[in-house]
Specification:
about 230 residues, two-stranded antiparallel ribbon, 10 helices, elongated
Length: about 230
């Protein structure tokens, strides 16, 4: 006979960091039952109690990977590809905002993006040196939660763009609207300034794009164990 208390303590520790949802509780009970069955089977075949428990515990699957929406991925490769995407996105945004340097706000944004390019480039080069060594490193990622974050990031970005665009419009044309004057753009430079004022905030699209990229990477870099 197995000592259920010993196994319960182990399983409780195993699930200590998990939320107590119905699904997790059911999985916890299933794991406990499987452990008891394994220990009993080992002992019936002549194995001592402590050895049977140790062997049963050693053969248990990764709990994180058993929970729905959790996926085991190649973690180093995941971070490497995400940094690579961040480098590409920030580089493109930096190039696009170079014409905006004629505006004070454009100088700030373009300089900030250049700093991001340099930083992500340095991280990317550093990670490239260790890619072969850590390429098979794995970790568990909650793909469901990441998908929710992706949707949330796009919603927040959309709201941000709408608010900023409305604010920019009111600042630029508010007095004209108030006094009933005609809305107009005086010349090419004025047109350029107007376009840049609306275009510069668009560079923040890098953030939801990166979260979306992370979601795609969880599928592409999933560990397919036999």
């Amino acid at each position: 006979m197995t000592n259920r208390h010993d196994l319960e303590i182990f399983v409780d520790r195993l699930f200590a960091n998990q939320r107590k949802t119905k699904e997790v509780v059911e999985l916890k009970n299933e794991v406990l039952s499987n452990l008891e069955a394994r220990v009993t089977d080992y002992m019936e075949n002549g194995m001592e109690y402590q050895s049977a428990i140790s062997l049963a515990i050693d053969n248990i699957e990764d709990i994180e990977a058993l929970i729905d929406d959790n996926q085991k991925v190649y973690s180093y490769r995941f971070r490497y590809d995400l940094v690579q995407s961040a480098l590409i996105y920030s580089l493109l945004a930096w190039i696009v905002t170079i014409p905006a340097r004629f505006l004070p706000s454009g100088i700030g944004v373009n300089t900030l993006l250049l700093c991001v390019v340099v930083l992500t480039g340095a991280v990317y080069l550093s990670m490239s040196r260790h890619l072969k060594r850590y390429e098979k490193q794995t970790a568990v990622i909650n793909a469901g939660k990441l998908a929710k974050w992706s949707k949330g990031a796009w919603w927040l970005w959309s709201i941000f763009i709408v608010v900023v665009s409305m604010y920019t419009f009111v600042i630029q044309y508010g007095s004209d609207l108030w006094f009933g004057r005609e809305l107009r753009i005086d010349g090419p430079y004025s047109f350029y300034v107007t376009v840049m004022r609306y275009a510069i905030p668009m560079t923040s699209v890098i953030i939801p794009l990166l979260v979306q990229k992370a979601c795609k990477l969880t599928l592409r870099l999933e560990v397919n164990e036999p």
